[in-house]
Amino acid sequence: MATKRKNLYLYLTLLCFIGLIVIFIVDGYLGVYDTLYVPMGEREQKVEADQWVQSPQYGMAEIGWGDKALFRYEVDNRQFSTYKADIEVSVWHSHQKMRDLLSQPMSIAPFKKGQFEWSIDTTELLPTGVSVEGRPVEYTVIIKRGEIERKVIFSIYGYAKVPPPPG
Amino acid sequence: MRLDYILIGFGILLCLAGVGYLAGVYVKYLSEAGKIISLLLTVGMFAFLGKYFEGLGW
């Protein structure tokens, strides 16, 4: 009787362990996860899937006026079925749509990744430029993937023009 | 008998290392419900393991 009870505790321990593994696989690994790579001056910053969960609006991109900013959006389909959705990317300012950047259907095979790229030409958005003394002008990139919406606020800052040395 | 204990200890260490690795990589993707169930299962796992060793006379 004592041996049976002793083994019961061991089996319950194993059951809890298997439960943990199953939760990590089903809830933690499986699903559709997106990662965005945004420009941060000369660097590229990664906004990972878990950051979207904490804050759906993640404003942190910085672009100098005159630069073309490249955004990369990666969708990781960790499901047993093909993931299909429409992706729409647009730039907004003061609750008004400035322009569409991307609009296309996506289809990602099971356990594969899909990658999308778009660029923003700051001179098209702000033809008059940004003064160096003034504060940066902020825009919002809205990424719609099916029913999921991601927002990234990026700011365009001015450059100080240094005159060329004489001679 | 001592070899049994060594093997059990080794197995437990491997299991903990595996769960630790999974937790380090994937805990950020878990939902709130998944996190709380994982916590309860971890507590249960150690509690039952304790009772098992208690039954062994430790």
3D architecture notes:
The complex is a heterodimer of chains A (about 170) and B (about 60). Chain A is an alpha+beta fold and about 170 residues long. Chain A has one domain: Immunoglobulin-like (Sandwich). Helix content of chain A is about 25%, strand content about 50%. The longest helix of chain A has 28 residues. Chain A starts with a helix and ends in a 10-residue tail after the last strand. The mean pLDDT of chain A is about 85. Chain B has about 60 residues and is mainly alpha-helical. Chain B has one domain. Chain B contains 2 helices and no strands. The longest helix of chain B has 25 residues. The radius of gyration of chain B is 14 Å and the shape is elongated. The two termini of chain B are about 15 Å apart. The model of chain B has no long low-confidence stretch (mean pLDDT about 85). Classes of the chains: A alpha+beta (about 170), B mainly alpha (about 60). At the A-B interface, helix 1 of A face helix 1 and helix 2 of B.
List the helices and strands and how they pair.
The complex is a heterodimer of chains A (167) and B (58).
Chain A: H1 2-29, E1 31-40, E2 43-47, H2 49-54, E3 61-64, E4 68-78, E5 83-93, E6 96-108, E7 112-121, H3 122-125, E8 137-145, E9 148-157
Parallel strand pairs in A: 3-9
Antiparallel strand pairs in A: 1-2, 1-4, 4-7, 5-6, 5-8, 8-9
Chain B: H1 2-26, H2 32-56
What would the keywords be for this entry?
heterodimer; A: 167 residues; alpha+beta; Immunoglobulin-like; 5-stranded mixed β-sheet; 4-stranded antiparallel β-sheet; 3 helices; 23% helix; 50% strand; elongated; B: 58 residues; mainly alpha
